[in-house]
What we know:
Elements: H1 5-14, E1 16-17, H2 22-27, E2 32-33, E3 37-42, H3 48-61, E4 65-70, H4 75-84, E5 96-100, H5 103-106, H6 123-137, H7 139-142, E6 144-149, H8 151-157, H9 160-176, E7 179-186, H10 192-201, E8 204-211, E9 214-222, E10 232-237, E11 240-243, H11 246-249
Parallel strand pairs: 3-7, 3-8, 4-5, 4-6, 6-7
Antiparallel strand pairs: 1-2, 8-9, 9-10, 10-11
Amino acid sequence: MVIDVFKFINASKEKKIVSGIPALDSMVGGGFNYGDLVLILGAPGTGKSTFVEQAFFANLKKGRRGIFAATNRVESSWLKELSSFGWDLSKFKDNFIFIDAYSAQATPGKISGEYTLSDVSDLNEFYRILKKAVAALDLKKTGGVIIIDSASDFLLYGNPTAVFRFMKLLSGLALENNAVAFITLEQGLHDEKITASMEYLCNVVLEFKVELNKRFMRIARFGAGVHPLEWIEFSIATTGLILNVEKFFGGGT
């Protein structure tokens, strides 16, 4: 029996969800696996939101579909952020859904929209809206991403134990629908036990920090996979995040 090795490799790649940063994807075997919960942990201003926006756009370009839930901005502001990096979502308007988890905090009682939370502390409502978005996009057909930016608001306004239970449901939803979930979390904002619990519930943890006016990230956890643990410097350019990975590959991408 002859095994088509290249066909097997290509099939494996098709089941990967990329970060949009080629160097990082190379470090983690081509991307993230269906069902992964990827925690993006860092203090405010370290580049977490830009990272998840870059991953979102990169996967739409690859024919995937996506759901982006934002707790700190409305859709118009979010679209402007992406367009500032040249990430134009207009051609993908049928392939993504934006969930507004911000308006309920900023203008309570004045919210509207099919994918708008009425109460950021109500994780049952959030999960129902997520499932509705997954079904509307038929996410399982193409695979894709579910992004929550940021989980910190749900922890601040709601019950942390309920958030932990929600994370388990999110993991199942992602796996069942060929998706990867990226969740940002504000480091230093929560009790250490809460942060440690969130890290425990995610099988992938990427840490971000700023030191001496330079940005760094590292792969703190990647399931059972082998990966570098060193902090890697990166910059945010007009095209998004660029890693300085000369140590690993001899060039930055």
